[in-house]
Design a protein that fits this description.
Layout: H1 9-29, H2 39-52, E1 56-57, E2 73-77, E3 80-82, E4 96-105, E5 108-117, H3 123-140, H4 149-162, E6 166-167, E7 173-175, E8 182-186, E9 203-206, E10 209-211, E11 217-219, E12 226-228, E13 234-236, E14 239-243, E15 248-250
Antiparallel strand pairs: 1-4, 2-4, 3-12, 4-5, 6-10, 7-8, 9-14, 10-13, 11-12, 14-15
Helix pairs in contact: 1-2, 3-4
Length: about 250
């Protein structure tokens, strides 16, 4: 018996509004993702916009009581894979920064990530960013009733590894709804025709993290920041997607 909660049309409508706010917040931040901006600046802008819309930042205070996440956004620069803390670090020309935004609006969550380039980046880093976005799109294209989660992971892995990059294994996509993290777990690697069969009403994130070098990761002492073990750059893109009767709808587009 599947533990995955199927969302009603009314629930998906609420999640559509949450997802639209996430997408809007990325558009608000984009002009400010420039050399000289601090991660803290971006965090403040995101929090102001989210709260002005009547929503709550999903990540601020999330996690264990003795070490809650301290920011509205996750800001992951260069070798940081995910969960980067938005501190006073200044962005530099040639950096990439993965900005992960989650909101709680009307009792439901929206969640997405976008990797920005800061000015002109090295060709191999631009290639990494492009491949990561393409791997997400390849997986999204397959979301429909009757498809399997393994199909999505296989699509991500095929695109990323086919272009010479590696896929992070330890951090995954997830179901989402009244809670930020629900069933199912969405792997970004795997075999076709395996895993959970998709049904209308399922809502989950696909969020590949792809590395320029090796796939191994390391968690820093702050308990949040995850970096590549070889210190090579990493990129991430993420959308929240709903399975519909005829295919899918990206809620954070």
């Amino acid at each position: 018996m599947s533990r995955v909660a199927l969302k009603s049309a009314r629930e998906i409508e609420t999640m559509r509004r949450a997802g639209a706010l996430v997408a809007e917040t990325f558009r608000v931040l984009e002009p400010y993702v420039v050399a000289g901006a601090t991660l803290k600046d971006l965090d403040r802008l995101a929090e102001e916009h989210i709260r002005k819309a009547g929503a709550t930042p999903a990540y601020l205070g999330y996690g264990p009581r003795n070490n809650p996440f301290p920011g509205t956004i996750c800001a992951s620069v260069n070798e940081v894979i995910c969960h980067g803390i938005p501190d006073g670090r200044e962005l530099q020309e040639g950096d990439i920064v993965g900005v992960d935004i989650g909101v709680l609006l009307g009792g439901y969550y929206g969640d997405a990530c976008y990797t920005y380039t800061v000015g002109k980046v090295r060709p191999e880093v631009q290639g990494l960013v492009d491949a990561t976005r393409a791997s997400l799109n390849a997986a999204l294209d397959l979301v429909k009733p009757g498809a399997r989660l393994g199909d999505l992971g296989h699509a991500v892995q095929t695109v990323a590894e086919g272009r010479g990059y590696s896929v992070v294994r330890e951090y995954t996509g997830h179901g989402i709804g009244k809670r930020l993290h629900e069933e199912p777990t969405v792997l970004h690697y795997g075999a076709r025709y395996t895993g959970l069969k998709l049904q209308p009403g399922m809502v989950f994130t696909i969020e590949p993290m792809v590395n320029l070098g090796r796939p191994e990761t390391r968690l820093l002492g702050d308990g949040w920041t995850v970096i590549t073990a070889d210190k090579q750059p990493s990129a991430q893109f993420e959308h929240t997607v709903a399975v519909t009767q005829k295919g899918h709808e990206i809620l954070t587009l």
